[in-house]
Amino acid sequence: MNIQDRLTLTTLEQVRALADPLRLRILAALRSEPMTTRQVAKCINQPVTKLYHHMAALEDAGLVKLVETKRKRGTLERYYQRTARSLSIDRELLSSSPHKDAGAKSLQALFSHVLEATLAEIEESIETKLVKKTSYRKTSLVARLRIRTTQPGVAMLMKKLNLMLEQCESAQSEKGDPEYGLTLLFYPTVQTGRNIRRKKK
After folding, report:
1. DSSP secondary-structure letter at 135?
2. Are β-strands 75-82 and 64-72 bridged in parallel, bridged antiparallel, or unpaired?
3. Chain centroid to CA 66: how far?
4. How far is 93 from 104, CA to CA, in rounded Å?
5. Distance between CA atoms of 48 and 167, rounded to whole angstroms?
6. Where are the domains positioned within the chain?
7. Cβ-proximal residues to 42 (8 Å cutoff; 6+ apart), any chain
8. Fold (CATH) for 4-132
């Protein structure tokens, strides 16, 4: 199945469609191969009835698409696929004055839900012993810092980060290989004059 490398979100409706941690988990489940809603539900351990509305919202926003239908035991199975391997937000979207307030709220919701979805996955990994106190430094990396650089430096860093994400998306794996989560947020902050480094393992 063909899937484009990157999709740029150009409408607030697309941004709002992502502002839900469950929808982010649905997209994560669909990153490798097309699935039915029932298969996605099993993958992320959720009731299938809970996912129909979210799948429809993602499809309406152009973030997933129907790629195949199969008839099985008298029912029609619909297989969905992500529209793109990675997503980005059009910078002009949030700078348009008529939509400034709505855009800011949508972006804030998106950031918040990305963090909530990440926290939910971390809690699940800890509960299932995938991450252990005695060995988490061998399998996990935790870092938070502030940096100061020039605008060309920001552009270069963004380019490198996007390249890294593309490499992660296309990484090869064998059946049974462990799966890892990666959350990356890069954003301008109110200046404090300090470089804060929390943790790096």
Report:
1. T
2. antiparallel
3. 20
4. 10
5. 32
6. 4-132
7. 48
8. Arc Repressor Mutant, subunit A (1.10.10)
Read off the tokens for 181.
């989560």
94-103: pLDDT as tens digits: 555 455 566 6
Question: Looking at this protein, which amino acid is placed at residue 20?
Answer: D
How big is the chain by its Cα radius of gyration, in Å?
Answer: 19
Mean pLDDT of 85-92: 75
List strand residue ranges (DSSP E) for the chain, in order. 4-9, 64-72, 75-82, 84-89
Residue corresponding to tokens 């991450």: 131
Tens of pLDDT, residue by residue over 26-59, are 988 888 789 999 999 998 889 999 999 999 999 9
The residue ranges of DSSP E strands in 46-175, in sequence order, are 64-72, 75-82, 84-89
Cβ pair 96, 114 in contact under 8 A: no
Backbone angles phi and psi of 70, in degrees to 5: -135, 140
pLDDT-derived band of residue 72, with 50, 70 and 90 as boundaries? confident
Question: CA-CA distance, 64 to 24, in Å (whole number)?
Answer: 11
Q: Is the pLDDT of residue 83 over 50?
A: yes
Terminal Cα-to-Cα distance of the chain (whole angstroms) = 38
